[in-house]
Amino acid sequence: MQLLKAIYDIAAVMVLFGAAIFVHEFGHYWMARKRGLKVEGFAIGFGPKIFGWTKDGIDYAWRWIPAGGFVKLPQMTTSTAIEGQSDGAEKLPPVTPWSKILVAFAGPFMNVVFAFALATVIYIVGLPVPINPPIIGYVEPGSAEAKFGIQEGDEITRVDGKQVKSWEDVQSFTVLARTNVVPVEIERKGVTNNYLLTAKVSEVLGLKVLNLDSRDHPVIIDVLKGGAADEAGLKAKDEVVSVGGVPVLGQDHFVKMIRARASQKTDLVVRRDDKKVTLFVTPRVDPTTKQGFIGAHLTDSGRIMYRVQKPGPTPWASVTEVVDRTVATFSALAHSRQTGVGAKDLSGPVGILTMLAAWVNTDYRLALNFLVLLNVNLAMLNLLPLPVLDGGHIAMSILEWVRRRPLSARFVEYATTVFALLLISFMLYVTFFDFKRMPLFRSMFSREMQVEQPDKGGDSSPPAPATETAPKQP
Question: Which regions of 29-134 does DSSP assign to beta strands (E)?
C-alpha cells in the first residue's frame, strides 16, 4: 500500500506541475500558430528527452529537468543555452513587434486563466483551512517575553498590525515585517495587550521568528541512525509528551530540556499510535557546545486541525490573495536589509515539487490551492522585464516598436544568453538551499491532520496562508 501511495503521489505531482507548465507553453504555442510563426519545438522541462515525438515538423518532448519548459520559435529571440541550436535551414520572414508581444504575453495569461479555473473548482468543492489558534506554550524564564508578563495559554491576535488566526499567520507576518522589533497583540481572558517583541533568526530557516513557542507537542520527523534517540527507540511520527516527568510545551522547550541533560539518563514519554510509550534516553555531549543532543529532527504542529470552508473562497478572492502575498514577498526581497529575506529563502524546482507532494499527500484541495499560487507566481515572475523571460521579450519588442527598427541581433542574442545562464545559476543556487531545507519539507509529511466537515451553510472564514514551523535538532 505504501508503494502504491508513493507512486500515486509522484504521478499526481508530475501531472499537476506539468499542467502548470503545459498551459503556459501552450499559450505561447497557440498564439504563435495564430500569428503565423514557425514552431520548431514544444517541451515540458529542460535537458535530455525522457520521451518525445515529431509531428508536422514540430519536435514535442518531455525532458528530465522539471524547471519549466519552452516553445522553440526561430523567428523570436531564443536562448541556445536552454533551447539548443535552431536548425536554421529555412529562411523565415521577420515577425512584427505586435506579434512578438502577443506570443510572449500569451503564456503568463494562460497561467492566470488556469489559476482562475482551479480557484473555481476550489470554490465548488470547498477548501480546508487551518483552525489551530496561535496559543502560546513555552515562555523561557528570564526572557524579555517573560518579563513583559507573557504566559503559557495567552493567544496571539495580531502581528505587525495584521490579524492572525494560526501559527502559520504568525510566522508569515513575522518573516515579512520590515523590522526585527515586531508589534504583537496578545489576548488573555478577553483582555488585550500590545508588545514590541524582538524576533530571533531561526537556525534552520535563516529567517526571523518570534521567541515564542506553540503549545503543541513536538513531533519527531526522523532519527539519526546510531544516535541516542535511535538507541532509545524513538521513531518518526512520535509525539513527545514529557521529559523527566515535565510536560513538554513545544519544540523549544523540548530542545532546552535535552540540552540541559547531557549524559543523564532521562525518561521520555511519547504518544505513538494513540498510545503513550515510556522510553529512556541518555543525551550525548556535543563536543563544541558541551550541551546534550539526541540526534533527531522534530517539529511542532504534529496535529493540525482543518475545517472545510464550503463554498470555498471566491475565485477572485483566491487569486487576489496570492497576488497580495507575492507582492509582499517581492517587497520583502526588495527590503532585504530590513526583513532578512533573501534569494536563498525562495524555493526552486525541488522545493516546489516537494511542497506540492506534501499537499497532495495531505488533501487534494490543498494541492489545488497550492497550484493556484504556483500559476499566479509563474505569470508574475515571467512578466519581469528581463531578457529570456516573457517580460523581457515584451520589453524588447516595445523598444523595437518605438525605434521602428529591430534591435541588434547580436546584442539581443548576447543579452538573452547571458540572462539564461544567470537564470540557470539562480535555479542551482535556490535548489542548494532547497536541499538544506529538506528536514522542514519532511515535517510536512509527518503531520497528523484532521479535517472537520463544514456545518450547514458552510464556514465563511477566509483561508489562511499555509507555511510550516521550522524543525529543530536536539
Answer: 41-55, 58-72, 127-130
DSSP character string of 402-432: HHTSPPPHHHHHHHHHHHHHHHHHHHHHHHH
CA–CA gap between residue 375 and residue 389 (Å, rounded): 15
Position 109 scores a pLDDT of 96
The residue type at 184: V
Q: Are 366 and 128 in contact (CB under 8 A)?
A: yes
> What does residue 375 show for φ and ψ, rounded to 5 degrees?
-70, -40
Angstrom distances, CA of residue 397 to CA of 41, 95, 112: 22, 10, 22
- Report the candidate in 449, 428, 423 with the shortest Cα–Cα distance to residue 363: 449
Average pLDDT over residues 160-175: 86
DSSP codes of every residue in 356-385: HHHHHHH-HHHHHHHHHHHHHHHHHHHTSS
How many other CB atoms are there within 10 angstroms of residue 176's CB atom? Answer: 20
Query: What are the residue boundaries of the structural domains of the chain, listed by start?
Result: 2-124+376-429, 133-214
Bond prior to 311 in cis (omega within 30° of 0): yes
Three-state SS for 434?
helix
- Could you list the beta-strand ranges (E) of 292-364: 292-293, 296-299, 303-309
Task: Report the C-alpha gap between 237 and 283 in whole angstroms.
Answer: 20
C-alpha cell at 69: 519548459
The residues near 296 (Cβ < 8 Å, ≥ 6 apart) are 220, 221, 222, 223, 224, 227, 229, 234, 473, 474
pLDDT at 68 exceeding the cut of 50: yes
Task: Give the whole-number percent of the chain exceeding pLDDT 70.
Answer: 86
| Tally of CA atoms within 13 A in the half-sphere of 458 that contains its CB | 15
State the chain's mean pLDDT as an integer: 82
Between CA 82 and CA 79 the distance in angstroms is: 6
- DSSP string for residues in 384-402: SS-TTSHHHHHHHHHHHHH
**Is the predicted pLDDT of residue 473 greater than 70, yes or no?**
no
Q: How far apart are CA 394 and CA 383, in angstroms?
A: 8
| CA dist., res. 134 & res. 141, Å (int) | 20
Confidence category of residue 474, pLDDT binned at 50, 70, 90:
low
- Lowest average pLDDT, out of 256-260, 362-366, 453-457, goes to 453-457
pLDDT at 301 > cutoff 70? no
Contact present, 222 and 302 (Cβ < 8 Å): no
> Is 50 a residue whose pLDDT tops 50?
yes
pLDDT of residue 467: 36
Annotation: CATH topology of 133-214: Pdz3 Domain (2.30.42)
Q: Helices H, strands E: what count in the chain?
A: 14, 19
Q: What is the residue type of 176?
A: L
Question: Is residue 54 within 8 Å of 141, Cβ to Cβ?
Answer: no
